[in-house]
Write a structure and sequence with these properties.
five-stranded mixed β-sheet, 1 helix, globular, about 5% helix, mainly beta
Length: about 210
């Protein structure tokens, strides 16, 4: 009995210095004929516990992104990145209109009230894209036959957040590829809770 099995390219991304898997790496594949799967036209990057979720998104050019606030405190979301400059002034329950990202690049998102809040939106004109999981892995399904360009992005590649790693060899539809990235930016130190948050945490455990 014959059956059709969907093929998927499996890419694993690790830290060259430690061998540890790298989560939140964006992998994109550009195919020679320019064919693209159905694109998502709108996504959310929401705020909860003074943190953006997800931390890293990969979206096609033309995507509209909304920034709903699911905290009890106000946020002021903005980006100065050339790929999409915007400024969403203080808001809490009401969600501002979506931001339209119509230019490829990396948008670094911040909050003008909470300096340690940061997110990244990679706007891609490649046909196929994905974000690695906690094991540093991502499956790219339904790649067409042939050899295609592969490149990888990570927040710690360099300080401007605009640099990509380009694979020296093309990737095929059922390839299993290990990518080892040399990182030049140190990891962010863990943020310490405020004194009020510390008192709240202690009260919850007593």
């Amino acid at each position: 009995m014959n059956s059709l099995v969907a093929q998927a390219a499996l890419i694993t991304v690790t830290n060259a210095a430690t061998g540890a898997p790298l989560a939140d790496a964006v992998v994109e594949v550009s195919v020679a004929d320019g064919a693209q799967p159905d694109a998502t036209s709108s996504v959310e990057v929401f705020q909860r516990n003074a943190t953006f979720h997800p931390h890293v998104s990969a979206v096609p050019v033309g995507t509209r992104v909304t920034f709903p606030n699911r905290d009890t405190s106000r946020h002021h979301v903005y980006s100065f990145s050339p790929t999409g400059v915007f400024d969403l002034n203080l808001y809490r329950q009401e969600t501002p209109p979506p931001v339209h990202f119509n230019k490829a690049g990396v948008a670094v998102i911040g909050c003008n009230i909470h300096d340690d809040m940061q997110a990244f939106i990679v706007i891609s004109n490649a046909g196929y894209r994905g974000v690695t999981d906690q094991n540093g892995k991502v499956n790219l399904e339904q790649l067409p036959p042939g050899e295609h360009r592969l490149r990888v992005w990570h927040t710690r590649l360099e300080a401007s957040h605009q640099q990509w790693w380009d694979a020296p060899d093309p990737i095929s539809a059922d390839d299993q590829r290990a990518v080892s990235l040399t990182l030049t930016v140190p990891p962010e130190p863990a943020s310490q809770p405020s004194s009020l948050q510390q008192r709240f945490n202690r009260a919850m455990t007593e």
